[in-house]
Amino acid sequence: xxLESGPSTPSKRRSKxxxxxxxxxxxxxxxxxxxxxxxxKEVEESxxxxxxxxxxxxxxxxxxxxxxxxxxxxxxxxxxxxSVYSYxxxxxIEEGSYGVVFRARDKKTGDIVxxxxxKLDEEKNGFPITALREIYALMSCRxxxxxxxxxxxVGDTLTQDLKTSNLLMNNRGTIKVADFGLARRYGDxxxxxxxxxxxxxxxxxxxxxxxxxxxxxxxxDLWSVGCIFAELLLKEPLFQAQGELELISMIFKLLGPPxxxxxxxxxxxxxxxxxxxxxPQPHQFRQKFxxxxxxxxxxxxxxxxxxxxxxxSAEEALQHPYFSESPLPKHPDMFGSFPSAAAGEKRxxxxxxxxxxxxxxxxxxxxxx
Amino acid sequence: MASILYPxxxxxxxxxxxxxxxxxxxDLEEDLRAYGCKLxxxxxxxxxxxxxxxxxxxxxxxxxxxxxSMKQFGVGDVGMGALYLASKLEECPLRMRDLINVYDxxxxxxxxxxxxxxxxxxxxxxxxxxxSTFYExxxxxxxxxxxxxxxxxxxxxxxxxxxxLISYLRILGLDKNTEACTRAWGYLNDAHQTxxxxxxxxxxxxCAAIYLTAMHLQIPLPASSPLSWWExxxxxxxxxxxxxxxxxxxxxxxxxxxRRRVVGLVTKKEVRRWLEENMTASK
Lengths: 369, 283
Prior knowledge:
The complex is a heterodimer. Chain A is of the alpha+beta class. Chain A is built from 9 helices and 6 strands, in the order βαβββαββααααααα. Chain A is globular. Chain A starts with 20 loop residues before the first strand and ends with a helix. By secondary structure, chain B is an all-alpha fold. The interface of A and B includes residues 31, 53, 80, 125 and 154 of A.
């Protein structure tokens, strides 16, 4: 797939480990997939200068063609996957219930990619639908801050989940969203059953899902963003609940229990009746975040809002005054850098801190003697 | 932007499909493609599956034969795998067991029509509880789903024509003409039995469906070269006629012999036997 559009990092020096996420599936028919980020350096570089879309390949003069009907030649051909053996496996990065992620090298180009190998042994229903959604989402969503898929590879052995552990940061401080295992095409009518309530890792799950809503919207992701924002400020997850009930009570405690004003639809949610609301209390955002500016607090509270209808949208959030008050967001090139863990780089100790003057101890020793 | 760039067969893939490389004649490949799609359609109806999933399955099925030969894979298995996969992609997954039962019924019915008792009514014999049929079909299903993914490079993006058809009919002032709408819709559905969705862009196929509709219902549309109505939809005459030709060939009357031949070649085993017999015959 030569369509890689998103240069992952706007800076020149980057570690390449997160440029590719690949997936590979060892199983019944031994499939491996890889999702990689970026193609070779030259391609990325040229794309950084021009538009990061595949459009710059088109001939410029096409007056009779509507933009909705690109030239026939722009369509990709039907191309089978390459073998996983076109990659050389390096070290293992992490293992999860979904599979294992390796660092790997493209034997042809030498590119370093992340290779994700899926565990298919447990699958009773063929190829997992979550993996299909993830691949689909990654292929159709090419963005600088999203892990780009490079290709899906097969071997012969054969997210609506926004949380901090799914955000990858490279050693130049650029963040990428990874793990689209639960991402779904949104906007299409969904079958009678509605969407599942089993989405989003517990701590980052929006209250409407907790209360059993079967129709939900992109607002659930904005709640997750709020949780992540809070986590960045607190240096620890905001709601570290063991179970759903505990999570609900933690939310009630921070936001104050929902009211008719803050969440008009609360009582119509399936599980609302099973929960007895605590007595009304004010929210505790200020106590929890004493050092945040009032504008920052406003953004946080707009994200962590009960009513999904009133919750801030992504577009609105980007326009929020928090991003225009001091300190201003830094240009990505100005991000601090730190050693790449994936490449095995170690942080060098800046200097040996001087020890206390030896002489000072003598007195003590003398005394003991 | 990327969403409209669904994969289409390349020129070399069109000129020589893998099946033709293996000696399968063009007309036989065409008939087998159509038959595989009919099975998908029938299974979809029996399973009360949504048309979007059925249509997507047929498109994946048609793409598959531009990278794979019917000597390697049977149209029955691949059709089953395509419907299973497309149902997941369209968020209306099927139960494996249901799909397998339905395909078993369809294949039994097909082989009944070939047998000596074909004049009698068909009776379905459910597979035996202890038999191996279920497990064989299940393995075939899992395998063909994986093969489709692998051979399509996991690019299973499909764009369906229905919404755009309605826009075009509105622009042409035909949206109140129920008969025209029904007919054009029908041509789009029938076109799924041909390879056109893997060959041409959606607007071209829609124009062909409207073109056939206008011809049959004798509806005049502005069509004086070089500025015919389809220019509005980024389509040219040559492509409209080619797609129309693909669709119209579906309706050609098949001889009894041709019909039997297709039904008897649902599996790769049968195709291989047929190839052996006919290769030796031609020598």
